[in-house]
Specification:
By secondary structure, the protein is of the alpha+beta class. It is built from twelve helices and 21 strands.
Length: 422
């Protein structure tokens, strides 16, 4: 279904929906950046967010120094909810999954844009999260991914309110949980499948540093594979099938997988464990496996190879000792669907237009972000970088260079306005 276009002044409000878009929608979206930059109210908002960049960086540091380990984001969520209220959002709440939400109503409840960043980090509880400053350089775990995104979301809210930007549609601003690792996008899954099911017309996530636009969702499957057997003394019970040897057989087979380079398809055994002592045949061993591709078909194909490799490893280990005592459990612990928002779609064309209007080169990327979920559902979605330059993502010495970072804030603001008004 294609919603009609509504004109307000010289600008176009385009309703973004799944499916094919008329050429006129693409053309209007492609010209939107220049039109927005000529509007007095929008120009005032852009100047407000540019001038407030020092505060945005301070917010980035403040949020980064509140721990948000996997599945334990509540402390940062409470701080972020308070900042949402202070910024003037309505109906600020923390939902059942732990997402922080706040509304900025437009003249109409729909179309509704969700404009978000993620609260969680990859770092365990107890990590030193103190940020170190060296001129324009900030160093600390999570400073770019995704404290930068969280701070830019706040900056957009304040600039829109300061310039009194009126939008036709409404915006729900969000800080989501569970974007990283085994969080498996649980926060955004809850939004689309339960908390805001059927209420979201388009979605933007700010994630990381730089000025790229992600319109291709790299899907992933993640397994925890557990081999089990009777176990025993390494000397007295010698001759029993060994779960850890079966694990080794499986990993060796996996290491020899041939995968396509186009579409890029990857695999990784990232963690292993098991056993009780050096002189014991383990009763249990396990490994965790990650497979990724932007192609659902390629992901399905490597998953099938993985399943066979594990099953064959159990059979081979039992056959080696002429036993039938091993079992294996392949628990799916992560499922991020692949998807894509077409480069010609109005939401991508609007982001491109705004980026060019700021004099920035356009880069379309692929990645695994909160936008995987709406993309897989056919809901227009992109993930944008938050500006600045970053390095060492997911490392304890992650760095963020704030030189010219305000360009990322300005672009985020213009995209938010573009997708709700004009």
């Amino acid at each position: 279904m294609i919603r009609p276009f509504l004109r307000f002044g010289p600008f176009l409000v385009f309703a973004l929906v799944a499916g094919v878009q008329p050429a006129s929608a693409q053309q209007d979206a492609a010209n939107l950046g220049t039109k927005l930059m000529a509007d007095a109210t929008v120009k005032a908002a852009v100047e407000a967010i540019r001038a407030a960049e020092p505060q945005t960086v301070e917010d980035q540091v403040r949020l980064c120094e509140v721990e948000a380990p996997p599945f334990k984001e509540q402390n940062r969520a409470e701080v972020y909810a308070r900042m949402f209220r202070e910024a003037g959002l309505q109906n600020v709440r923390i939902d059942k999954e732990g997402n922080v939400l706040g509304d900025r109503p437009g003249s109409q409840p729909r179309p509704r844009l969700v404009f978000s960043a993620h609260l969680d980090t990859v770092f365990p509880e107890g990590t030193n999260v103190k940020v170190k400053r060296e001129g324009s350089m900030l160093r600390g775990p999570g400073i770019g991914d995704d404290c930068r995104g969280l701070a830019v979301v706040l900056a957009v809210i304040r600039a829109m309110n300061q310039a009194k930007v009126q939008t036709a549609g409404s915006i729900t601003f969000a800080g989501t949980v569970g974007e990283e690792g085994l969080g498996d996008l649980r926060g955004v899954k809850y939004l689309f499948n339960d908390g805001m099911k059927g209420q979201i017309d388009r979605f933007v996530s700010i994630d990381g540093t730089g000025l790229g636009i992600t319109n291709v969702a790299v899907g992933s499957l993640r397994y925890r594979v557990t081999f089990k057997g009777p176990g025993g003394h390494s000397y007295g019970a010698f001759g029993l099938s060994n779960p850890l040897h079966a694990l080794g057989r499986a990993v060796e087979t996996i290491s020899q997988f041939e995968v396509p380079s186009d579409p890029k398809t990857t695999f990784n055994v990232g963690r292993v464990g098991g056993g009780t002592s050096v002189n014991s045949i383990p009763f249990e061993s396990w490994f965790e496996m990650d497979m990724r591709s932007a192609s659902p078909a390629a992901l399905q194909a490597i998953d099938a190879k993985f399943q066979r490799a594990v099953d064959d490893a159990v059979k081979a280990e039992d056959a080696r000792w002429k036993k039938n005592v091993l079992s294996v459990d392949k628990a799916l612990v992560g499922n991020r669907p692949a998807g894509q928002t077409a480069p010609t779609s109005p939401i991508v064309q609007a982001a491109i237009s705004v980026t060019r209007a700021l004099g920035v080169a356009v880069t379309l990327d692929e990645g695994s972000t909160d936008s995987n979920i709406p993309m897989s559902l056919g809901i227009p979605a992109i993930t944008i970088d938050g500006g600045g330059r970053g390095s060492g993502s997911h490392a304890l010495d992650e760095a963020f260079d704030s030189t010219n970072s305000s360009v990322g804030s300005q672009r985020a603001l213009l995209i938010a306005i573009a997708l709700t008004q004009m």
